[in-house]
Amino acid sequence: MYFKSTRDQSKKVTSAQAIAQGLSAEGGLFVPESLPAITLDTLKELKEKTYIERAIFVLSQFLTDFSSEQLENCVKNAYQADKYKSESITEISHLYEGTYMLELWHGPTCAFKDMALQLLPHLLTTSATIVNNEKEIVILVATSGDTGKAALEGFKDVNGTKIIVFYPVDGVSPMQKRQMTTQQGDNVYVCAINGNFDDAQTAVKTIFTDKELAKVMEQNGKLFSSANSINWGRLVPQIVYYVSAYCDLLKNEEITLGEKINVVVPTGNFGNILAAYYAKKMGVPFDKLICASNENKVLTDFINTGIYNKNREFKATISPSMDILISSNLERLLFDLSGCDDQAINEWFASLNKTGVYEVSDSVKQELSKQFFGGYCTDEETKATIKKVFDRYSYLCDTHTAVAVKVFEEYKQKTGDTKKAIIASTANPYKFTASVLSAVSSEVCEDEYEQVAELNRISGLEVPQALANLKQCKVRFEGSIEKQDIKAEVTKVLHL
Q1: Which member of 49, 83, 85, 113 is catalytic?
Q2: Which pTM value belongs to this model?
């Protein structure tokens, strides 16, 4: 299988090249030439398999230049039993009749990003071997919270790599910040910026297409790559857990083979729900894809109008991983919905860069409304949902998952759709302790770890050891830089 660029489909690369490179030279995202099919018979077979076996199967359909031995090593090293609380890697909790929580946060950093970022370092280093790249791979990451820590944990002390993470200084939760600033590893570097996630993401994407800097990197034996979901190696592992979730529901006899279910995803950069879309196109019987946003509702407005407009107030919310106004992975969806029209993609995204706005064609609008439902949730509604779900079902969810629950309720009220549904639960509640605690209790605690103890007392939910241990960890990375200085910081860290 070959991969082509969303902005120039004449450029075709292998999967190893796509993963090693991260982003196409002209700024496009790599997508597969075609999507492999998953039949009902295949799902019937996969339901008896382990998560690792399912992952190897799905990955083998896309990464055809990897040997079976290479793929097996990548997957088994990523999903080692000692890294995950659950033997099944993910867990499905039955919230209420016909509604299931797909818990994606049982990995080492307690967020869904672990599902991809424990695997990506193995895919990336293997890709480098396949394409005979002997350069040091420099991973540049812009994060709104969870990607940063998951990437740092995945790449720490991986031979032949260095990782540099930028995060908005006031745009992550205290626990997310502590996870990143205390990160261990000789090859890691973390830096806060005085700006928001979009500022960091834009700067990082600009660095990837900087030809002069690429020459300097080449001269110094280094190569940039990405751990953000612009990298296909980040996205393909996410397809796995949607395939696996359907198989688990089949195995548990919660659904029948071929039964269509809805999928609800809280998302800012659109990668998590795009993976569900790809799984659906491959043949997994998903029906409506319900896209849940917080008050930065650029995706909700786009799905409902076909007009993408980033010219709006940026809001810092209690679901900070979704505080995004430029959703990178939307480009992949639009490329697919437009019939792989790279000219249209170039026009739309040139307009976005120039004016902050673009409007898609009527045919794309129709397909958007057919495939997706868009809704959003305020901070007040998020807290109210956390409390309602906890009081009614004794289930504690984080601030992002609560957004998805609220939007799903809105969807059912508006449409009357009674199909069963899985809700992507994206983070452990303790990653956002202050906000979750204030939703379920009037108790006031100033110290972050007093808040953790109080939430544990109220909920009985076990505190992950990885988060509890942070209290003893020394902060390694302090201070912040201006957003316009990101490139200079990168060159300084790399001694270029």
Answers
A1: 113
A2: 0.94
